[in-house]
């Protein structure tokens, strides 16, 4: 049964005694398990072991495995992946925004404090048809990310930062593909320096004149 994502991120209704563990810390550990193992491969036993709780406590706090996964994805989006929208919003030019996005990805995807790569890009790979709605939820998030890149590029075109004939959708797809490829390379062991090289090479494909001081 498909679950409304907005509802999934709400804590499960408490039953009986208050929770005897730190829900946020438990969710952080669950996020790491899903990030490392993927949605289907992560077992309830692995999750509860990492979270330091029992299966009944998991169900009381989060509802079920699917709701736990969606809550973990939300935590990832607001934690390790929070820099993605900030890069697009804070930089003065589209070029600077995309470059920062890729360079920060090179840093974030290779940190030692969490699994490598991008959880949103990797967590639902190799899922069966039974988890199609999980894959769809992640695909929706990825599509939102590419839309953000496209909108930033369109803004750059309107400000004459790029040639008027620039295909914003195609350029956004290119940089989104680079971003996902970097995430995959990170899971295969690519170093931060290697991914920075990929990012800089991708930016050399930028159409038109590169802004100064970038």
UniProtKB/TrEMBL annotation:
<dbReference type="InterPro" id="IPR036271">
    <property type="entry name" value="Tet_transcr_reg_TetR-rel_C_sf"/>
</dbReference>
<keyword id="KW-0238">DNA-binding</keyword>
<keyword id="KW-0805">Transcription regulation</keyword>
<keyword id="KW-0678">Repressor</keyword>
<feature type="DNA-binding region" description="H-T-H motif">
    <location>
        <begin position="43"/>
        <end position="62"/>
    </location>
</feature>
<dbReference type="InterPro" id="IPR001647">
    <property type="entry name" value="HTH_TetR"/>
</dbReference>
<feature type="domain" description="HTH tetR-type">
    <location>
        <begin position="20"/>
        <end position="80"/>
    </location>
</feature>
<dbReference type="Pfam" id="PF00440">
    <property type="entry name" value="TetR_N"/>
</dbReference>
<keyword id="KW-0804">Transcription</keyword>
<dbReference type="InterPro" id="IPR009057">
    <property type="entry name" value="Homeodomain-like_sf"/>
</dbReference>
<protein>
    <submittedName>
        <fullName>TetR/AcrR family transcriptional regulator</fullName>
    </submittedName>
</protein>
<dbReference type="InterPro" id="IPR023772">
    <property type="entry name" value="DNA-bd_HTH_TetR-type_CS"/>
</dbReference>
